Amino acid sequence: MAQILKDRLREKIEAHRPRTTRLLKEHGDKKIGDVTIAQAIGGMRGVKSLVTDISYLDPFEGIRFRGKTIPEVMAALPKPEGKDYPYVEGFWFYLLTGDVPTKEEALTIVDEFKKRRDVPQYVIDILRAMPRDSHPMTLFSAAVLSMQRESKFAKFYAEGFNKMTAWEPMFEDATDLIAKLPSVAAYIYRMKYKGDIHIPSDDNLDLGGNFAHMMGLAEPYDDVARMYFIIHADHESGNVSAHATHLVASALSDAYYSLSAGLDGLAGPLHGLANQEVLKWIQNVMKKMDGKLPSEEEMKKFVWETLNSGQVIPGYGHAVLRKTDPRYMAQREFALKHLPDDPIFKFVSRLYDVVPDILREQGKAKNPWPNVDAHSGVIQWHYGLKEYDFYTVLFGVGRAIGVLANITWDRALGYPIERPKSLTTDMLEEAAGIKK
Ligand code: CMX
Question: What is this structure's pTM?
Fold first, then answer.
């Protein structure tokens, strides 16, 4: 058991519960916003109706994890010797508790994950039985769902549910899942793209290092993995993957059912799948240009062609952000340091030069700036991970950390089953005064 983390988490939960109880009992009728007809029809954009303390997304500043920006998180958390990015295991500790772990504490979680990372044989059998041309996200989500029989929460519920301690088996399931996901992802990758030749995990390595090793990718890919999983972990709870995970968990479904649902949402092209779409788009342009970097004028032409054909520019725009995504900037800084001359990086930079002005000129997108997905493929491609339909799985491994921290806390605070209210179009027309 991850005892240090579990004990710390218990302290935090016990200190936090009275805050939620008091808000509900004494201030439950205070308003935090009104809902407009546009919000009801338009995907509930901006409706304040979710609570999470794991991260907060400011439209202009971007994400803060437990109050810290991405650069602050990277600077504060303990790192493996000689590495630029922190232990993912320490980040899990931090997201759950809000406390920056010592290196010793982070290493306890490293050890804990090592004990839990083996994937049951039946999961491998299921993956092997699925058509080899299934999308990697389908394989990934199916693998997560297939492990549901391992759920400690489901067992706990079947044996008699206790609301006060329900977070404990949820935490156990979450820990099991985060430990296993890199092994599942690497298995899918090697099965699908690397001749079905697999690399066993190395017990001397942390999660990021071992993932790079199992993927067969050399240093500094270990640091790429650490950075990538951390920056993708959480983006408040209203985005599709986080919200889907939270929604399913609210029915007292366990972490396996919930995460699988979240991953299914992540696989949509307007959400996590955009990272593969960006690379696909760039490859198309590269083919048309015979590998040559387009001039600004030529690039503008390609962007307009995409818009005029009714498609979105993948990697640009956001439902909440109104400036360049700090997750984009974190990757851009990495690229400037490690791969400034990479031809695809130059493509991505040229896009950054032209797309915001074009989207402004088109006048539709509320945010013309790049999001995380505009940059993530370049670094993967540079280090040899060129199978871009795998990129969303990498996003999924990272996203799991945030959404599983969230649903552990959902259980701790006893959040109820989610059930917003629907209205009919007639009712909206009545509210608008169009119809009596
Ligand atoms: N290219 C072209 N048009 C865009 C656009 C883009 N990148 N972003 C938004 N628009 C359009 C929308 O399609 C919408 O058009 P309609 O009025 O014709 O329906 C209009 O601008 C208004 O949209 P919005 O309010 O600015 O954006 P939403 O909150 O509705 O959607 C998002 C947000 C991310 C889905 C959208 O910006 C988009 O489709 N971007 C491209 C896909 C992408 O990069 N997704 C990844 C987001 C990050 C992640 O979750 O991983």
Answer: 0.96
